[in-house]
Amino acid sequence: MYESENKAMNPDEELVDILLEFIIVAANLAKSINRSLKQKQIKEGGNVNGQNQRIGYGDQRPAQRRSHY
User: What is the pTM of this model?
Assistant: First the structure.
């Protein structure tokens, strides 16, 4: 695959090399798409992490303890 190498690659090595290049290109494409989607959400005023509402129960008070005599 590379002309600068003196030894020829066998078919298995060439397949592995092609698959690794494919994985790298796919990862870079996924990062680019993700970055574009985040920028689009920011421009539209949306929340980047997908949560538009508060979740959780931080304002609830613990139950009152009753003393038993």
Answer: 0.51
Return the SS3 of 15: helix
Q: Which two tokens stand for residue 6?
A: 């003196």
Structure tokens at 35: 């970055």
Q: Which amino acid is at 14?
A: E
3-class secondary structure, 40: helix
Which bin fits 8, alpha (ψ -120 to 50), beta or left (φ > 0)? beta
Angstrom distance (rounded) from CA 42 to CA 36: 10
pLDDT tens per residue, range 11-66: 999 999 999 999 999 999 999 999 999 999 888 886 656 555 556 666 566 666 66
Q: What is the pLDDT of residue 43?
A: 87
Q: Please tell me the distance from the alpha carbon of residue 42 to that of residue 48, in angstroms, as a whole number.
A: 7
